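Supplementary Note 2. Why include the ligand at all?

Several targets in our set were suspected to adopt different conformations when bound, so apo predictions alone were not considered sufficient. For every target with a known small-molecule partner we therefore ran a joint prediction. The input for magnesium ion is given below.
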Amino acid sequence: MTSDKLRVLLVGNGGREHTLAWKLAQSDQVECIHIVPGNGGTAGVPKSENITTVKDTNFAALVKHAQDNNLNFLVPGPEAPLVAGITDYFHQHAPGIHVFGPSQAAARMEGSKTFSKDFMKRHMIPTAAYENFTDYGAAKNYLEVVSHSVVIKADGLAAGKGVVIPQDASEARHALESIMADREFGDAGNSVVIEELLEGDEISILSLSDGETILSLPPAQDHKRIADGDTGPNTGGMGTYTPTPLVTKEQLEEIDRVVLRPTIDGMKKEGMTFRGCLFTGLMMTKDGPKVLEYNVRFGDPESQSCLALLQSDLAELMLACCTGTLSQHKLSIAPLSACTVVVAAGGYPGSYAKGTPMKVKEAKVEDGVFVFHAGTGLGEDGQLKTSGGRVIAATATGGTLREAVDKAYQGVKLIEFEGMQYRKDIAGRALK
Ligand SMILES: Nc1ncnc2c1ncn2[C@@H]1O[C@H](COP(=O)(O)OP(=O)(O)O)[C@@H](O)[C@H]1O
Ligand SMILES: [Mg+2]
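The joint prediction is reproduced in token form.
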């Protein structure tokens, strides 16, 4: 660690960024955090301020803001800036600024599903059987002959909407047509992956890496569907808990050996060394763990639960990822469970109202309850209002999973706005 304090530029406006700001602010190494653009919660984090005068997609303006304010550490929260090459841009135009996040080449592991599937095949990393297609006719023919149930995935970024799990052959044909012919997701549908439907429990693992050392946070489980019992349409994620008992210690070791290690080593070998947070989505099938996808940044809402258990200094860990010194660090994880319940706007993931006034009572940190904002903003009058679909989340830690879950639902009671909806069964599968 240099004697220079970290002056952070954090890009993003979701629950993940509120959580990152909250955790980074706890570090003695961190002097200030500028969040572009931030949300109604990040503005209140110690040492933090929201910056709304700079557009988060304008890399030149971000470099200028960083230089004008002596910021020395860039943390891009979401995938879009990473896939667009923000890391390389900063390295080129502001070489003195550390960037926590992979290069554009490495970010293809999230930015292109066909690329990541081919990577897994090259490195014999277990994943669903698949074929990639750029030709609509060929993809259509394949659907007629394929013997297994399929999942259809648009290749590029589609804000969590580019994956279809068809119930029957006609739904599969329709999904393929929307993606490849009707261009529902634009260029993200230039190619598609058609893969085998896997069955099992789905888990997420967040791993910090400097390209060699891998330090993983405890395994988490997200809840993608909007409604209880995993019904209704997919969302960005309605709640998480960690550690999930649905994977054993032995299975985690297997995941390390057959997935994480070959992934990080393979990326280095191919000249796209991974520095940052690698999110591996896995299905625990009866034939062992299989990778569903990689993301190249912290998960949202996995981070809210996982970082609530992290006792280590996150800023030091992130800096070590940038400087290639992660081997000198260990993760200190609280021997607790954590649970996050996301509160969404009525109608989400379909159309929903924005600008609904909200009331949020102070969470009691000593009780292990935290409220992380996502789609919120402050009106000119200082009134907190909704501004997105996934609005806000309550996270809690507890000595048992049951306790963490109960406290998180107590935390939800601190939140009030018209039309609010949330799942009542977060962690239900694990508690059964
Ligand atoms: N092969 C598969 N078998 C079963 N379910 C899958 C498969 N691939 C994806 N899914 C489901 O679809 C969700 C979204 O797919 P994913 O590959 O994570 O894409 P994205 O997060 O970019 O939308 C996953 O979280 C998982 O629930
Ligand atoms: Mg996913």
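The chain has a mean pLDDT of 96. The CA atoms of residues 83 and 258 lie 26 Å apart. Comparable summaries for the other entries are listed in the accompanying table.
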